[in-house]
Design goal:
The protein has 300 residues and is an alpha+beta fold. The protein has 4 helices and 17 strands. The chain folds into 2 domains: 146 residues, Diaminopimelate Epimerase, Chain A, domain 1; 133 residues, Diaminopimelate Epimerase, Chain A, domain 1 (Roll).
Length: 300
């Protein structure tokens, strides 16, 4: 089964993370989408850090399917946030803002329905909030890190270990290597103590001069560094602040090494939501040939 030839897509940045949404040109057949989805994320027209989804009309609202058919766990929150922002910009959000100015948009995903809320802000990209689960503290105070013990949380189907670093990393390659080494040492300490390996590690530090903001870096189980943590892990970080200080959860601002912030806000009943902005970078058209090779579509 061939595609429709020309594939329509839009690229966005969410807190510095690249997202590609495919909006047309690919039939809703799993085998076709599995082949083309991975190629649309791969170099030279994508890269390893890119996430994405096919966007279709579903019976209960817009439907999102990951471009990477082999992706594990729930659909990446950055993709949900980007899709909600793009649907709002293109007039497909539906509904009207409530009395607080926030407008809801319901999305279908392979894991069930997701609700995002948006609020217009003049000519700026709208602020978008996406739920980030109810983190549960599984084991506090495990093997000590540079600034204290490690807390283990269950969140959004993941076991996330949260550690503190003694200094921010920024974009310095040497500091990134040192942070990775520190996480590897903590992972070894947990294994030595008989603790099952977590699905991910979130290390945080407070950058100098950025009052109230935390820098957060996320490593998956294989030790791969992601510049923005999964939203469930960010919710666990917000919950960790309240649990450690014995305080009620409060909104926090978190940034990755690039310094672009997102907010994590309490959403009631122990849940959290992540708030950020998505910016359209480019509208793209690709052509898929008979062998599903992907090339930019150029009109001479």
């Amino acid at each position: 089964m061939r595609t429709d030839g020309v594939i329509e897509a839009v690229d966005l940045h969410v807190a510095g993370a690249p997202v590609r949404l495919v909006t047309g040109g690919v039939p809703r057949l799993p085998d076709v989408r599995a082949r083309l989805g991975r190629r649309l994320l791969a170099e030279p027209w994508g890269h390893a850090a890119m996430r994405g989804a096919f966007v279709d009309a579903g019976p209960a609202g817009p439907a999102l399917t990951p471009l990477d058919a082999d992706a594990l766990g729930p659909l990446d929150g950055r993709v949900v946030l980007a899709a909600a922002s793009w649907l709002w910009r293109s007039g497909q959000a539906g509904g009207a803002p409530g009395g607080d100015g926030w407008q809801a948009i319901d999305l279908e995903t392979p894991d069930g329905g997701v609700r995002a809320t948006l609020r217009a802000d003049g000519d700026r990209s709208p602020a978008v909030r996406v739920g980030a689960d109810r983190p549960r503290l599984e084991a506090p105070g495990l093997a000590g890190g540079p600034e204290g013990p490690v807390d283990l949380f269950q969140t959004a189907g993941l076991r996330v270990a949260i550690a503190r670093l003694d200094a921010p990393v920024g974009l310095d390659p040497g500091r990134m290597l040192a942070a990775s080494a520190a996480i590897a040492a903590l992972a070894h300490a947990l294994a030595r103590d008989g603790v099952a390996a977590p699905d991910g590690w979130l290390a945080c530090a407070r950058p100098g001069g950025a009052a109230g903001m935390l820098e957060a870096l996320y490593w998956d189980r294989d030790g791969t560094l992601d510049r923005l943590a999964p939203f469930g892990a960010l919710a666990a970080l917000a919950a960790a602040g309240g649990a450690r200080g014995g305080r009620a959860p409060a909104p926090i601002e978190v940034c990755g090494p690039a310094g672009i912030p997102v907010r994590v806000v309490p959403a009631g009943d122990g849940a959290f939501a992540v708030e950020a902005r998505a910016f359209v970078v480019a509208w793209r058209r690709f052509f898929a040939d008979a062998d599903d090779a992907i090339e930019p579509f150029v009109v001479a």
